[in-house]
């Protein structure tokens, strides 16, 4: 378990600060992550990688010559926010565009996609690419749904080496696509990991058993088997990967492969070497020519006791890129590279945010902003009270970070709302500022979606009129539409949408009947609570819980449950008299 920490909510930020201080020759800190100390050479595509904390040396440890130009780092097991990614990308940009690379997880897809859109608005050409190497997380015909695990490294490296050659952005992207198409991974674990401040692991494995087909966010495996010997573990992983050869590899005999045996956090190097001796023998027996193997901790999951095996099936071009030199804090290959002087670096991008001014608002809207502030305070309180419960629910089939992420988001939202309110902002601006802060500080899927909810509601309410029940209902309906559009989930997928849609529909119906906001909200909150409880009977079709669908039966969705709690908490602070008079 993680024993050395201060405030668990600050763990990721403090870890990144210490990492940057320890590796000043390679990296320099910028808002949202790190970039190369010497910057990106002019005219070179910048490869910016990223994901949640808890995976070191991914992602910050891979920044340096021959590999990434920058890394955006989110909270523990949560994607960085779009603003963090944009900040890192702008600091890393060398004038030839940016390729944003990450593992295929819902939060990363949302935030990196939003960041690419914002970069385009800044005049910076950007592309995104998600690694999908984990064969256990989806069937071969659904490779687009697969997770990215230790296969991140060879795919990142291929793209970065192509960028070092001076190739244009679209060519670098094509290299990433080709490397990903020929990369496969499979993992096993003997115990789960424990998040900073938690007193128990995210999942446990029965004595003398192992979990098979696991991710890198503390998710449980897709199945269990008897605890193997080292040789049996090697046979299991090699056998699984040899059963699924990528297109263009008809037989392993005579093929070359980059091989990575990755420790997930608690398996010692000597143990990995014992396993690798058998991996090498089995691949040799199959006729595979191993090229520059890597054995060690490359993509971890805190203190998880487990290993994964990755094969990238090489052709001449991919072998050239795999063998290309690299020099980063955690990964070095080839002849030593002369260290570039940090003084060559361009100044990091720092967005000038003037939060000392807010749009003009009417007295009515400023008065309503006080009610918004009370609601956000109630939201923060209810999340603090239930954070542990939310984490436990999320850990049944996910990564267990929902409580921590919601705490970070609600705390940041409340602080931003207080600042805006003190400056005389109206209700709409207070909500928009709160939503942007929530998305930025929480990251992850829930951060993106809650940021969207508050921004949609704030945009609808504006700063001129006192909110009516009908206006609030329309704002919640706007939020429901935006969340479904952004996240791609629908009712029945076992997500927060299963609560948000019926809540929005009930609120609109009650407001349409002429009920004041407090009464309309009460009716909708009851609907939300029933809908959240009903998610226990659903199988997840979206997000990290999807590969572990059967495990989640009988447990409500964490995002749906937290939304229901929030609707009830807000009802408790709405004024007894109607905010609107018809």
TrEMBL record:
GO terms for biological process: glycerol catabolic process; phosphate-containing compound metabolic process. Keywords: ATP-binding, Kinase, Nucleotide-binding, Transferase. Residues 370-572 form the DhaL domain. InterPro entries: DhaK_dom, DhaL_dom, DhaL_dom_sf, Dihydroxyacetone_Kinase. Residues 7-331 form the DhaK domain. SUPFAM superfamilies: DAK1/DegV-like (SSF82549), DhaL-like (SSF101473). GO terms for molecular function: ATP binding; glycerone kinase activity. The keyword Transferase applies. GO terms for cellular component: cytosol. This is D-erythrulose kinase. The lineage of its organism: Bacteria, Bacillati, Actinomycetota, Actinomycetes, Kitasatosporales.
